């Protein structure tokens, strides 16, 4: 029986992700090592006999930030159409008909006044000003977004995915329906929030999830039921072997 999935992929390593700096609206490029690791991830996890089967993808959502868009390029999914930010199609082999959509719904959490700062710096500055403790999940960011703001964005996208791609496919015999998997390429905090909301957790309580730079997670459903969303623990991977970046598929 068909059980649709959503693959969530955090963009590859950047200098700011290495240093723990909050990167929301800033457009920071991938490091050379970050690019190599994403290529390795694509080699390991994308293919007809791999976790992400390109022909099963119905839709691809990507953040407006170039670090997420570069990550999608390096995964080498073989998109039939040119990517929205490119002047021509770059794929040499076509493996998926999935439409690629750039959406602000999956942009990173807006850190506002805390953009570019590390958590330790934020706490030090708050202490100097006589302010209390800080937790992004509970408090959000001054000048930026609150947990409620982020929840609304995530819930809107989850609703869209289920209505457009999953409702009509779930529970059918394999092969009966069209492609129904969805892939999202975005950022650490927003994807952790998205996964938390997928299983109906209040992100203000901290979803207690980790997704490292270049990491891949899988969301799905239990018992072939649209009303039982779940996190597929067996489908959460991160490739960290740079040497395999040139391996053949």
From TrEMBL:
Pfam families: His_Phos_1 (PF00300). It comes from the Eukaryota. Substrate binds at residues 23-24, 67. Signal peptide: none annotated. This is Phosphoglycerate mutase-like protein. SUPFAM superfamilies: Phosphoglycerate mutase-like. GO terms for biological process: ribose phosphate biosynthetic process. GO terms for molecular function: sedoheptulose-bisphosphatase activity. It comes from Aulographum hederae CBS 113979.
């Amino acid at each position: 029986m068909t059980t649709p999935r959503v693959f969530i992929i955090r963009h590859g390593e950047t200098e700011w992700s290495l240093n723990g700096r909050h990167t929301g609206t800033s457009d920071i490029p991938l490091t050379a090592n970050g690019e190599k690791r994403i290529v390795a991830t694509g080699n390991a996890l994308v293919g007809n006999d791999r976790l992400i089967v390109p022909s099963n993808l119905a839709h691809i959502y990507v953040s407006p930030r170039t670090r997420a868009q570069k990550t999608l390029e390096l995964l080498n999914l073989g998109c039939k159409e040119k990517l929205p930010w490119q002047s021509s199609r770059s794929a040499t082999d076509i493996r998926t008909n999935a439409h690629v959509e750039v959406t602000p719904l999956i942009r990173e959490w807006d850190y506002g006044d805390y953009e570019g700062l590390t958590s330790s710096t934020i706490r030090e500055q708050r202490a100097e000003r006589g302010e209390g403790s800080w937790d992004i999940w509970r408090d959000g960011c001054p000048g930026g977004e609150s947990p409620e703001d982020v929840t609304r964005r995530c819930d809107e996208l989850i609703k869209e995915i289920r209505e457009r791609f999953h409702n009509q496919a779930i529970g059918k015999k394999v092969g009966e329906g069209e492609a129904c998997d969805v892939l999202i390429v975005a950022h650490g905090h927003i994807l952790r929030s998205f996964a938390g909301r997928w299983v109906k957790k209040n992100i203000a309580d901290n979803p207690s999830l980790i997704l490292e730079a270049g990491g891949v997670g899988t969301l799905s459903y239990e018992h072939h039921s649209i009303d039982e969303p779940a996190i597929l623990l067996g489908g959460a991977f991160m490739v960290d072997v740079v040497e395999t970046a040139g391996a053949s598929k």
